[in-house]
Amino acid sequence: MLEEAKAGFRKAYGYEPTGVWSAPGRANLIGEHTDYNNGFVFPFGIDRRTYVAIAIRQDKVARVASTISEEVFQWEISDAKPTALDWALYPLGVAWAMREAATTGFDAFFVSDVPVGAGLSSSAAIECSVGFALNELWSAGLSRQQIALLGQKAENEVVGAPTGIMDQTASMLAEADAAVLIDCKTLETELVPLGLSNKGLVVAVMDTRVSHRHSDGGYRSRREACEKGASVMNVSSLRELSESDLVAAEKLLNDVTFRRCRHVITENTRVLAAVEALKSGNMERLGELLLASHASMRDDFEISIPELDTAVEVAMSVGAIGSRMTGGGFGGAAIAIIEQSKLEALATACKKEFAAKGYTEPNIFAVKPSQGARKDS
Ligand code: ADP
Ligand code: MG
């Protein structure tokens, strides 16, 4: 892919790139819709990455191209945000967010094997690849955490997606064989070794190939319900509440708002319990927590879809340790922790069940917890 990125660059711009950088997509082990509620998340970087071949220019023009489309998009770096430039808003939004450090323009070409819209955050992968590259090319001196925040700023303010800080933090801070516990209130992070391969386990992704592209409304309304719940409960965010507050919350909130808040509050507890389970090597407990998380998203937060529920049921039926939908919901993928030797049985059973129900054929593959943003060449 590294060579593919260089070749794509040469073809688009007719000269050699300065270097190639990359950043991974991520899978969230547990902790869904908790990030924008100042809570806990526990994602890991996956072995599917977005590569960017890039060179600086003498002017302030930024050009971006990708294997995703033929068109080269162009914008001049300035205080005025780039607008109406399709997918190019992701990388150009990052350049806009970093504009104070921008000493030059640049040409960039992207190649990726992170599936788009599958809940594995191809958006953070593209943002972090270019953010990490520009930080070096411009000698901006930003920390990985700061680059993550600027990636989020781009996605919020330029793309217009009201997402939290999880995806970019995972893509920037991930390490091989580990997951990153992120406290989204303090932005403190802790790398927790997963040790899956020692136990003969893998994380299987079951991509339903139902795109969450049209989920903006659903995401927004969940965010609003959480904000409303916090405001009625008179706290700055749901992070400030614990399970002991649920009795009071049930009296004060309407049924839907209560269930949305219950998901977030119980999910925070589950994330910390999952970290403990891993540290003590209790995989059975980890599995229970993943399943409880899925049930909470399905029943209380109502962001699952029948395809995701089916994927989780099939995974458990072939002997997975635990399984849950991952990512924002309304489509995308589920994950399962499963013995390597059962992966093929899972793929076969999942495809069979999806076919029987008339769903689109799912894409099933294992992901390996991998390193965050890096320079490749
Ligand atoms: P997810 O992050 O779950 O994959 P998003 O909707 O957040 O889904 O982001 C997907 C969007 O990010 C794509 O529709 C596209 O605009 C942009 N994108 C991601 N990867 C690339 C890429 N390699 N080249 C061009 N655009 C990309
Ligand atoms: Mg995304």
TrEMBL record:
Keywords recorded for this protein, A-Z: ATP-binding, Carbohydrate metabolism, Cytoplasm, Kinase, Magnesium, Metal-binding, Nucleotide-binding, Transferase
Residue span(s) of domain Galactokinase N-terminal: 9-55
GO molecular function: ATP binding; galactokinase activity; metal ion binding
Coiled coil: none
Cellular component, GO annotation: cytosol
InterPro entries assigned to the protein according to its UniProt record, in alphabetical order: Galactokinase, Galactokinase_CS, GalKase_N, GHMP_kinase_C_dom, GHMP_kinase_C_sf, GHMP_kinase_N_dom, GHMP_knse_ATP-bd_CS, Mevalonate/galactokinase
Biological processes, Gene Ontology terms: galactose metabolic process
NCBIfam families membership: gal_kin
Descriptive protein name: Unannotated protein
Organism: freshwater metagenome
